[in-house]
Amino acid sequence: MEIIKNFVDNIHNDDYKRNYGFPILQGESMVFPGGRRTQSLNGEWNFSVDQYDNCLRAKWFLEQETNDEGRSVPLDYAFDEWDNIKVPGVWNLAKPEYFYYEGPAVYSRRFSLEKENKGRVFLQFGAVSYEARIFLNGAFLGIHKGGSTPFSVEITHHLKAENRLIVVADNTRRKEQIPSENTDWFLYGGIYRDVSLLFVPDVYIKSMRASLIDRETGAIEVTALIDGDINRTDSEVTFSIPELNIEDNFPVSADGTCTKIVNADKLSLWSPENPKRYQVYLTLREKNEIKDKVSDVIGFRTIETKDRKILLNGRQVFLRGACLHEETEDHGKAVTREDIREAFQRAKKMNCNFLRLAHYPHTQWVSEIADEEGILLWEEIPVYWWIDFSNPQALNDARNQLSELISRDFNRASVIIWSVGNENPDTDARYHFMKDLAQTAKKEDPYRLISAACLVDSVNLRIADRLERHLDVIGFNEYYGWYDPDYEKLTEILNGSRPEKPVIISEFGADGYKTDQKLRKSVRGSEEEQEEIYKRQVELFGKTEYIQGTAPWILYDYRTPKRLGAYQKGYNIKGLVTADRKREKPAFAVMKDFYEEVRINERNDKGTV
Ligand code: GCU
User: Fold this and answer.
1) Residue whose CB lies within 8 A of the most ligand 1 atoms, among 423, 559, 562, for a mutation test
2) What is the CATH number of the domain that holds 575?
3) Domain containing 156: what range?
4) Nearest-CA neighbor of 510 among 557, 543, 544, 550?
5) 178 and 248, same structural domain?
6) Pocket residue to mutate for ligand 1, from 183, 504, 507, most atoms within 8 A of Cβ
7) Which atom of ligand 1 is nearest to the CA of 483?
8) 126: Cβ–Cβ under 8 A, 6 or more apart, which residues?
9) Inside any domain, residue 536
10) Judgement on whether residues 481 and 449 belong to the same structural domain of the protein
11) What is the pLDDT of residue 218?
12) Residue 184 Cα to ligand 1 middle (Å)
């Protein structure tokens, strides 16, 4: 009988997760959201930590208050009486006792549809850290793995007039996960990005991608995928850009794909100086009847490399960057649009045109606002430091996170680089794992640059990582002056290396702590030492022709359990600005001046005024 079985499962069954493994993967789960009707499920949810995973063990989500004899079963949960918690948000900042919590936690809310819906309904999450198991009205809908990418699950046939939604979020660090157990950032937990219902017709546009593939002719490659039972021969899609009087029809092939090259000869190209975007529509018709219509706002540009240069719209560009984690003191990882705009303003004040979004996909608001404000972006999946490179499940998870990121941001002009990892030990297993990811990224998106933040060959003092042959741009992290005081090694590396591709210094820097006068000389990690290290670094960069971008680590101080020194106190203090975002450290001005010089030299080289 279910109750007895529940009881046995609850205490005697260590394989209690065997029924909760159905994966929610990009291929099935992603639905193109642009221009669709949605219903927000943001707001106050009920919440409790669940350290022993009892919701799964005892199947609380079934909510079987009574059994066959009508007897009420003693309840160990109280969804509607639990604490309230704000969604989106990180549980770590919801209550002091939740700050360091890592593990399973249960979110619950009720909802009903705001209005009658005839078509299909998807439940869409911006991101949940790290695993999310979704239960609707007692039914298990699937598990999503990966704490930084969006996913959705169809709920059309599970909906009732009044619905109970339960999400078991689990941010336990595990060896086989991406990232694994050891990172230099604070692992927040929870449903920290938007949750919404997405309404689509029975037959709908699952994806729509548009890339400028030839600047001279204005050729735009448009690809779309149609899902649902439709008569392909009587169907077509129309791609339109009203501002350019473009309206182009093309057929739906038997497998639901639609591909066409559309010529837009009067395009104004997107760039940081001119972040021009166009309203774009894709309409699906069957026998001339409109079945679905989606929209997006897209900037068109080309990004490529030539020899050891990076070319934006055919012109060399130096990436004047900074690294950025997804965090503010007040919101943790659940950053707001205002937080993002504030970071962009600070970066632009430092004369940046580029940000390296470390070390995982940030909210899609970053790339949307970067499109609007004209900032170039490096986006990265968290294949970070040691990973279980020999584990096929780890590779599947990394591939899925990469596909979900590419699927989400494909139409964002600001995104120019997909990075497949950071500072990974150069073993054979790592090489094959990351070669696969680099090839997957290039296959899914032939029109962007592929990179990774590699480690320098510190034995031979060369930029020499065998992964480079699969990258378009070589990222490398170095901390000479800080972790290794010998600048001569950096000089040797830069002068002795012969990279065949553009190089970005994807990290450099040092701690910067504001000390009072009497400690100034003896303190390691003073702001003065940080400033000195920056001066020595940028001097060397200026002399190295193949360096085509720099991204100092890091724009803001940020929380990390790894940094427990007298002056760190749980923060990585390599920021150029304090964690409260109030004060720029002296090294900020060093970068600002360096980038101003780069910008002036670029302008002179191009002969632009
Ligand atoms: C590494 C790593 C960063 C880390 C930084 C540091 O390069 O990529 O995530 O925070 O160094 O040591 O502070």
Assistant:
1) 423
2) 3.20.20.80
3) 9-200
4) 557
5) no
6) 507
7) 12
8) 88, 150, 192, 193, 194, 195, 363, 364
9) yes
10) yes
11) 96
12) 6
Q: Would the CB of 404 count as within 6 Å of ligand 1?
A: no
Residue 309 lies in a domain: no
For residue 208, what is the domain's CATH number? Answer: 2.60.40.10
Same domain? 511 vs 488: yes
**Residue 607 lies inside a defined structural domain of this protein:** no
- Number of domains within the chain: 3
Q: In three state form, how does the secondary structure of 237-269 look? A: EEEEEHHHCEEEEEECCCCCEEEEEEECCCCCC
Six token digits for residue 416 = 């120019």
How many A from CA of 176 to the centre of ligand 1? 21
Position 365 in a domain? yes
Q: Which of 381, 553, 564 to mutate to test the pocket of ligand 1 (most atoms within 8 A of CB)?
A: 553
What's the CA gap between 253 and 260, in Å, rounded? 12
Same domain for 280 and 383? no
The pLDDT of residue 3: 66
Q: Which atom of ligand 1 is nearest to the CA of 477?
A: 7
534 and 467 within one domain: yes
**Statement to judge: residues 209 and 358 lie in one domain:** no
The C-alpha R_g of the chain, in whole angstroms, comes to 25
What is d(CA 45, CA 110) in angstroms, rounded to the nearest whole number? Answer: 8
The answer to whether residues 196 and 238 belong to one domain is no
Supply the pLDDT for residue 73.
84
> What does the DSSP 8-state code read for residue 501?
S
Looking at the structure, do residues 182 and 236 belong to the same domain, yes or no? no
How confident is the chain (609 residues) per 10-residue block, as mean pLDDT? 72 91 89 96 98 96 86 91 98 98 98 93 97 98 97 97 98 98 98 98 96 96 93 92 97 93 95 98 95 97 97 97 98 98 98 98 98 98 98 98 97 98 95 98 98 93 95 97 95 96 98 77 83 96 94 98 94 98 98 96 70
Distance 384 CA to ligand 1 centre (A): 10
pLDDT at position 529: 93
The CATH number of residue 182's host domain is: 2.60.120.260
Residue 342 to residue 582: CA distance in whole angstroms: 11
